[in-house]
């Protein structure tokens, strides 16, 4: 039994059987990995693919999707009907992304999220 500092194989110095610096770094890494995995699993519950969106827009898109279950009032989210296809509604998520919904009569069904460029290239519903 010694209380002298020793150098671990990793190069860190410390006391005891294992390097506590590496142990805590590893614990943080495992936790981050688990959080990332849990976050990725939440996408399985979305009616449309939101994986390509930044996290804050994922949250925003989900809020809108949840509201659309109960309301057809897309103007609440600054949504607009497309001029060339009145059954398609475009809801801005940010300057760069739009959520495309189809008017199915009794409710609005989210179809996909498009970036601004995609949206301009392949006019949805066109
Ligand atoms: Zn170490």
Mind explaining what this structure looks like?
This protein has 126 residues and is α+β, with helices and mostly antiparallel strands. It folds into two domains: 6-41; 48-121, YaeB-like fold. 34% of the residues lie in helices and 21% in strands. It is built from three helices and six strands, in the order ββααββββα. The chain has helices at residues 20-42, 55-68, 116-121, and strands at residues 6-7, 13-14, 80-81, 88-92, 97-103, 108-115. The chain has a four-stranded antiparallel beta sheet with strand order 3-4-5-6. The protein has a two-stranded antiparallel sheet with strand order 1-2. The longest helix has 23 residues, at 20-42. The N and C termini lie far apart (77 Å). The protein binds zinc ion. Residues 8, 10, 12, 19, 21-22 line the site of zinc ion (ZN). This is Recombination activating protein 1. InterPro entries: DUF7682, ParE-like. Pfam families: DUF7682, ParE_like.
What is the topological layout?
Blueprint: E1 6-7, E2 13-14, H1 20-42, H2 55-68, E3 80-81, E4 88-92, E5 97-103, E6 108-115, H3 116-121
Antiparallel strand pairs: 1-2, 3-4, 4-5, 5-6
Zinc ion binds at residues 8, 10, 12, 19, 21-22.
Domain DUF7682: 4-25
Domain ParE-like toxin: 56-121
Pfam family, one: ParE_like
């Amino acid at each position: 039994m010694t209380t002298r500092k020793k150098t671990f194989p990793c190069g860190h110095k410390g006391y005891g059987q294992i390097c506590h610096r590496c142990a805590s770094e590893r614990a943080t890494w495992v936790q981050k990995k688990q959080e990332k995995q849990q976050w990725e699993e939440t996408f399985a519950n979305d009616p449309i693919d939101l994986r390509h969106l930044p996290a804050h827009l994922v949250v925003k898109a989900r809020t809108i999707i949840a509201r659309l279950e109960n309301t057809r009032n897309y103007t609440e989210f600054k949504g607009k009907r497309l001029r060339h296809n009145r059954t398609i509604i475009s809801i801005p998520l940010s300057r760069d992304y739009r959520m495309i919904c189809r008017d199915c009569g009794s409710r609005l069904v989210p179809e996909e999220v498009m970036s601004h460029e995609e949206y301009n290239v392949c006019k949805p519903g066109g």
